[in-house]
């Protein structure tokens, strides 16, 4: 499956580097096509999406930054990052939401008979996700699944993934744990593709509702999420959004 440390790509991806972070301003369809090409060629792909919170945390978490810098494809998720990059003069065609990519890739896996592995969330939730996806995609092969609260048993979980025969791994663990876990164990996972999918499992399992389409397109998905969990999310968004605005102002001045 090639040398994992090299960020080799089948095509020359356009890239931008706002805030010192390399990102690939490509569309959802371009991302899907590229991932399919690489899986077909048995070439390992480490994928990540960046949003406002992740960019803010990268500025103070060197391990998170290094984990993201190792990724082969870095999509831009979150309209705040899209708008910020455009304000800085970068051409960003669209937002690529992690959950949208996840769903399309699962559909592709079902059509191409590519076995997948689901890692993250509580056991009851990941079980429901596996069942829900198999109900929706009859041909989908779920090679295995495991909850995300495995603590120090990382090696056992990695062994289970490797022995499952899965070729695609979706990790629904909170940031920065998932990025660090993926980057730490990528050589040992035995898969061709891995990506973090954040809270996507909770959405698929029906535990959390996703914003209406008009709010997604208007960049208000964060506001909808805040309405569902006002106490936790209001504090988080205020803190990260203010930090991002400061980062954006500094970047604009010095760019």
What do these coordinates show?
By secondary structure, the chain is an alpha/beta fold. The chain is built from twelve helices and six strands. A six-stranded parallel β-sheet has the order 2-1-6-5-3-4, with helices on both faces. Helix 3 (62-69) crosses helix 8 (177-185).
For this entry, give a set of tags:
255 residues, alpha/beta, Rossmann fold, 6-stranded parallel beta sheet, 11% strand, globular, disordered N terminus
Query: Termini separation (Å)?
Result: 39 Å
Give the overall shape, derived from the CA principal axes.
Answer: globular
Overall pLDDT, averaged? 91
Trace the largest sheet across and list its strands.
Answer: 2-1-6-5-3-4
**What is the count of DSSP helices, taking H or I runs of 4+ residues?**
12
Which CATH architecture?
Answer: 3-Layer(aba) Sandwich
CATH topology: Rossmann fold
- Tally of extended strands? 6
Topology as a string of helices (H) and strands (E): HEHHEHHEHEHEHEHHHH
Name of the CATH class: Alpha Beta
User: CATH superfamily membership, which one?
Assistant: AF0625-like
Write the layout of secondary structure elements.
Elements: H1 28-40, E1 45-50, H2 52-58, H3 62-69, E2 73-76, H4 79-87, H5 98-112, E3 116-120, H6 123-136, E4 142-146, H7 154-164, E5 168-172, H8 177-185, E6 193-196, H9 200-204, H10 213-217, H11 221-228, H12 230-254
Parallel strand pairs: 1-2, 1-6, 3-4, 3-5, 5-6
Helix pairs in contact: 1-5, 2-12, 3-8, 11-12
In brief:
This protein has 255 residues and is of the alpha/beta class.
């Amino acid at each position: 499956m090639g040398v994992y440390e090299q960020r080799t790509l089948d095509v020359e991806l356009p890239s931008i580097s706002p805030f010192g972070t390399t990102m690939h301003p490509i569309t959802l369809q371009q991302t899907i096509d590229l991932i399919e090409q690489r899986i077909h060629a048995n070439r390992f792909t480490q994928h990540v999406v960046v949003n406002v919170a992740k960019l803010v945390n990268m500025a103070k978490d060197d391990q998170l930054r290094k984990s993201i810098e190792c990724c082969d494809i870095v999509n831009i998720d979150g309209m705040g990052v899209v708008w910020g990059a455009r304000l800085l003069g970068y051409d960003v065609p669209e937002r690529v939401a992690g959950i949208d990519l996840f769903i399309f890739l699962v559909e592709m896996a079902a059509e191409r008979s590519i076995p997948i592995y689901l890692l993250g969330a509580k056991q009851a939730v990941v079980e429901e996700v596996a069942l829900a996806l198999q109900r929706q995609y009859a041909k989908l092969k779920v090679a295995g699944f495991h909850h995300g609260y495995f603590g120090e048993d990382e090696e056992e979980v990695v062994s289970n993934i490797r022995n499952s025969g899965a070729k695609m791994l979706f990790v629904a663990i909170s940031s920065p744990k998932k990025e660090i876990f993926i980057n730490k164990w990528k050589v040992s996972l035995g898969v061709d593709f891995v990506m973090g999918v954040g809270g996507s499992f909770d959405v698929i399992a029906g535990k959390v509702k996703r914003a209406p389409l008009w709010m997604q397109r208007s960049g208000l998905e964060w506001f909808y999420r805040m309405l569902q969990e006002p106490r936790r999310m209001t504090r988080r968004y205020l803190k990260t959004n203010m930090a991002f605005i400061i980062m954006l102002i500094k970047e604009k001045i010095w760019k």
